[in-house]
Design brief:
two-stranded antiparallel ribbon; 2 domains; 10 helices; single chain; 7 strands; Beta-Lactamase; about 260 residues; Arc Repressor Mutant, subunit A; alpha+beta
Amino acid sequence: MTEDTANPAAPRQQKVQSAEVGVGILKALAELAPSTSLSKLAEYVDMPASKVHRYLQALVDSGFAEQNPANNHYRLGRSALQVGLAALSQLDVLKVSAPQLITLRDEINESCFLAVWGNKGPTVVYVEQSLGAVTLVTQIGSVLPLLSSSTGLVFDAFLSGAETAALREAESAGLSGKQLKEIDRHIKEIRSTGVHQIHGLLMAGVNAVSSPVFAMGNKLVGVVTIVGSASVFTDERQAAAAQRLRDTAGAISARMGGEMPA
C-alpha cells in the first residue's frame, strides 16, 4: 500500500501546497516589480533557486510571468495584469474615473492617468495616453515618488501624516532645508487650490498637473494627473488644462460622494 493510497487526501494537499507556493512567488514578483533576477527572487521568498525556477517556468507557460531575454530577469506577465485589472475594476474610483479621463484626454490631447495609494506609495492604475504621442513616464503599475512628483505631492497634501511618514522620511533624507521648505509651500498651495502644476520636477522636459479625488467623508481615494512634453504642454496650455483637470476631479469626487477644497 502506497502512502497516497493510505491517505487519499495527500495528492490534493500537495496541489494546495504547490498552489500556495506559486501564489507566494507571484506576490513576490509583484513586490519586486518591475522585474527581478532569479537569485534575488529566491532570496526574497527564502527558497532554493532551482525550486523557484521550476515554479517560474510554470508561471511563464501560463502567462502569469515573463522573462526578459536581454537580462533574464522575471516580471509579471499579461495574465497577471489581466487579473489585477479585473480586481481594480471593482474599485469605484477606477470605474468612475475612467470615462472622465477618456473625455479629458480627447479634449486636451495630453496623457491622463489615475493613481491610488499603494503599499509602496502613489501607484498608477489607469492611463489614457495622448493620441499619437510618445509614452512619457506613466505606465500602469508605475510607483511615483512622494516628494518629487506632482502626483506624490497631492497625496502628501491630503493623506494623514501616519500614512505618508515612512516614505516622506526616506525621501527627505537627501533634501536640503531649503528644498523641504519649498515642498511645504507646495503642500499649502495644493490644500488651498485643489490642483498642482509642476514643470520638469520628476523628469526634465515633462510638465504635469495633478488634482485630488475624494470619496464620502472627504477621504482621498486617488489623484488624477495630466502629463505632457514641455515643448507642447506650454504654460498657457498647462494653465487651461489645470482648470479642466480640477473640474474633472471635482466631477469624479461628486460621484464618489466627496467634494473638492473650496
